[in-house]
Amino acid sequence: xxxxxxxxxxxxxxxxxxxxxxxxxxxxxxxxxxxxxxxxxxxxxxxxxxxxxxxxxxxxxxxxxxxxxxxxxxxxxxxxxxxxxxxxxxxxxxxxxxxxxxxxxxxxxxxxxxxxxxxxxxxxxxxxxxxxxxxxxxxxxxxxxxxxxxxxxxxxxxxxxxxxxxxxxxxxxxxxxxxxxxxxxxxxxxxxxxxxxxxxxxxxxxxxxxxxxxxxxxxxxxxxxxxxxxxxxxxxxxxxxxxxxxxxxxxxxxxxxxxxxxxxxxxxxxxxxxxxxxxxxxxxxxxxxxxxxxxxxxxxxxxxxxxxxxxxxxxxxxx
Length: 319
Hints:
With 319 residues, the chain is an alpha/beta fold. It has 13 helices and ten strands. A hairpin with a 2-residue loop joins strand 9 and strand 10.
């Protein structure tokens, strides 16, 4: 039912980050019953590698690609568990901490690389991002594959030195634009981080301007899954509005950049001859409506592999 809801939101592919061992039997069941309504790129946490790797490698479905493993470097800003280089501005005795120490992170990265999987590190605070980049640098030097794509989830608190390292290493940064609004509205990021660090919280325009590839995600179920909400949030950002981006750049984050992140940009992510016929028909062109109206655009149809998997009109008739 959840996957059907994703299709109704106009999404043709998702990056499914598994968080619990209990999800594996569900994935097996969906695949065995041929009930995958859209394409799935599967990423599992490193602690499930030993147990789940053989199971997932044996799953065969044209819509399923198992390709990544995730290391959690730190927690979140809301709980002050994100690892920062300097103390939290609203609690000077707290800096957060690494959930995975540097040495252990390097050992786990080796294990992921040896398994032939994409190395993905979840890092929110600047201390965690710094630790992740140190691991990426080591792995990059060791990689024999020129197409060794490293990915950073969240990368919330940044600075110009970290951005330069991201660019140099060609690390893909996966951000969730709706979270930007939440971080400033639900609680004050300025109060928690101070103005200087809050200015560099999810600095999407600065990342793009400096040549870093950025992927857009939803952070569902913590945030709504609708990608149009994320696109609107990216172009209408009202706190540190210099980080607003164009609609075209936002669309790229959720299409071709996302396909690149799973090494599939040659087969999807844009509508071109020779690529998979995966696309969404919208009621209005997002580039011509007022930016604050983008999230109100309706999904008319979702088409995957040339087949209509969702139609608003057909849904109306069935009701």
